[in-house]
Specification:
By secondary structure, the protein is an alpha/beta fold. The chain has helices spanning 10-17, 83-92, 109-112, 116-119, 129-137, 212-228, 261-282, 290-297, 309-325; strands at residues 45-51, 54-59, 62-68, 73-76, 99-103, 124-128, 148-150, 153-158, 161-166, 178-181, 186-189, 233-236, 240-243, 250-253, 257-259. It has a single domain (10-260), classed as Ribonuclease Z/Hydroxyacylglutathione hydrolase-like (Metallo-beta-lactamase, Chain A, 4-Layer Sandwich), CATH 3.60.15.10.
Length: 327
């Protein structure tokens, strides 16, 4: 699973418990609900126009984007074998022009699977070169092999539109890229930061898919891009989870886009937790006691949305290792 800035895993349980037909294809008024029986009447999938000729497609808690040009469509992550055909059907409601390019944000299967329907109509698949290597080393028949690979930067140009992809080194996955839609100057981010809040708790900090040793450098470069290009808006790669301030119960934040300040907030988050572990070690605290000490002090508890002592303890074990070993 990806780094999730969405509501807690219990939300997904509603889908499983209710036997929701994830491969459903229905008319607009027949789209099944994502979480039937709850007070969150979100549809299983939806398409929103977020700028002129720019659309956000959401399936379940996952989101991709596509750009309609006068010569065809540029699409991103097809998400899954269930979502891919639905995404294509949603594109067909807007244009009959073919999908010419599909750009992968990273190599995790829960974002990259399902692209065969686009390949069947001749789409060219684009990915960072490490992503291509990952998919060779760990293949999945549901993931289309990239046709074009690149190192630090690639720009897809089609008709009157373009999509830029920037690789700033390992972050979430070893090949994740950020995407900039030129016509609207919107940044599409998957799994590394999600509006509206960059101070979000990890859903599972024990997993190894995130590279803490490079996060400050990654977000420093990303923030430089935001400032240099004067980017104001971020499109989130997931629905965002939060907590009701009155009941403290998990909820879903409405909205697909948010301010680019989320990048600076995430940089501050990584900087703060990196410094916390280093400072505690410098104070003479034994390494195996650092996580407990930080949690007992409630350090950053008021700043981190969805703060969870158990998750924080696990996260600080990783940050203590980083302070000791550099990784």
């Amino acid at each position: 699973m990806s780094l999730i800035y969405r509501v807690l895993p219990t939300a997904l349980m509603y889908i499983l418990m209710c036997g929701l037909p994830l491969a459903a294809t229905a008319a607009e008024d027949e789209v099944p609900l994502l979480m039937p029986g709850t007070k969150m009447p979100f549809k299983l999938w939806e398409t929103e126009q977020v700028a002129e000729n720019v659309y956000a497609f959401r399936y379940s808690f996952y989101r991709a984007i596509f750009i309609v040009t006068d010569e065809g469509v540029i699409a991103t992550d097809p998400l899954s074998v269930e979502a891919g055909p639905v995404m294509l059907a949603e594109i067909r409601k807007i244009t009959e022009l073919p999908v010419k390019f599909v750009a992968y944000s990273h190599s995790h299967w829960d974002h990259a699977a399902g692209g065969q329907v686009f390949k069947d109509e001749g789409a060219t698949f684009v990915a960072q070169q490490r992503c291509a290597a990952n998919l060779i080393e760990n293949p999945n028949p549901a993931v289309v092999t990239p046709d074009i690979t690149y190192d630090d930067y690639y720009k897809i140009e089609l008709g009157d539109q373009s999509l830029e992809m920037f690789y700033f080194g390992p972050s979430h996955d070893n090949c994740l890229v950020v995407m900039l839609i030129n016509s609207s100057n919107q940044l599409f981010l998957t799994d590394i930061a999600n509006p509206p809040n960059g101070w979000a708790m990890f859903y599972n900090p024990a997993i190894s898919e995130d590279r803490p040793w490079h996060m400050v450098r990654f977000f420093t470069q990303l923030q430089n891009l935001v400032e240099t290009r004067e980017i104001e808006t971020v499109i989130g790669g997931h629905m965002s989870g939060s907590f009701d301030p009155v009941t403290n119960r998990p909820t879903i934040v409405k909205g697909t886009t948010g301010p680019a300040a989320v990048v600076q907030q995430r940089l501050e988050f990584w900087t703060a937790i990196t410094a916390a572990a280093a400072a505690e070690l410098a104070a003479g605290t034994p390494p195996d006691e650092v996580p407990d000490r930080i949690v007992e002090q409630g350090l950053l508890a008021d700043q981190i949305s969805g703060y969870d002592p158990k998750k924080m303890r696990i996260l600080m074990r990783r940050m203590t290792s980083l302070a000791l070993t550099g990784e």
